[in-house]
Amino acid sequence: MPFESDKIMFEIYKESTYTGQYRVVYFTELQDHNKEFEISRAMAGEHFYDGFIRQYRKDQAKETISKFLERLNGGERLTSADLERELQPFIPA
Length: 93
Prior knowledge:
Mean pLDDT: 92
Shape: globular
Strand order of the largest sheet: 2-1-3
Number of domains: 1
Helix content: 25-40%
Strand content: 15-25%
């Protein structure tokens, strides 16, 4: 069974006050100096998806998320189910 420290909590949201771009915030990786700002920014946006990725292979998971955001921001119509399918290998059991 994975430990809490073995996973990273994140959220993808669409900015509502700035550029209208989709962004991701990795909550469990925030530092004290940026925690409040990033959480406030995410909460002000329009929720798209939230979940966890495994700490193991996190770089590959983040690359998958980054590419997905590029597609969303490029105008491609995608759903949270599309993202979940792409993230399946990285989602903790």
